[in-house]
Amino acid sequence: MNTSIRNTGRLLTAALRTLLVLTVVCGVLYPLAVTGAAQTLFPHQANSSELKAEGKVVGSSLIGQTYQLPKKDPDDPDEAARPDLRWFQPRPSNGLGTNSVNTQYALILSGATNRSADNAELVQWIEDAKKAVIQDNATEGRRISPSEVPADAVTSSGSGLDPHISPAYARLQAQRVAERNGLPADEVEALVADHTQGRILGFIGEPRVNVLRLNAELKELVSRQAR
To answer: What is the per-residue pLDDT across 134-188, written as a single tens digit (0 to 9) for each?
Structure first.
């Protein structure tokens, strides 16, 4: 009886010691080491890849965000969002709405527009989105044909939160952005070229343009022109 109690006590003591050691190692030392290494070696990435403009954080370069006009009736939940055409627009996404916690993102709703190629709903989405892209980006000096509209202009990414667009979609918007902001078209096109990133390591992924970075630079360009 006494031996059994002593053995049980030793097992409990060993278990508690193991729990204590693992808690200190895995719950304190390891997180501190990883956090310290991340802050030392990759501080920008470790702090959400925040992008600042005029001294203020305007978003993360890893998550797309919308550029929309204010609602005419803020209390009307059925009023459709209208893009602010002064800015380069991101890929379509139902996940970039608003909620009571975060006024920029409704992450719980994010998702792709992936359906089968012959899905009637997808076909209608794409047709409607293509018409909107053509209408929004047509200017006095340029008309856009349906064949010029790239796929990323009318479909969401896998997450619905892609911060990038293709160079083709950015160039498609350049003339409209230039006219809306009273800027020379060649300056806006040069801005797109400067923000076009190539494939990672030369072969991974596709060339891309980060919309948040591009619009932040556009805002600075507009400010300089206004002085």
So the answer is: 999 998 878 899 999 999 998 887 777 889 999 999 999 999 999 999 999 999 9
Q: Name the nearest CA neighbour of 152 among 84, 203, 88.
A: 88
105 neighbors 96 (Cβ within 8 angstroms): yes
Residues 15 and 121 in one domain: no
Considering the domain architecture, whether residues 9 and 115 belong to the same structural domain is answered as no
From residue 121, alpha-carbon distances to 108, 127, 191 in Å are: 22, 10, 36
Number of domains comprising the chain? 2
pTM: 0.78
Distance between CA atoms of 100 and 153, rounded to whole angstroms? 28
Name the residue with tokens 């932040």: 216
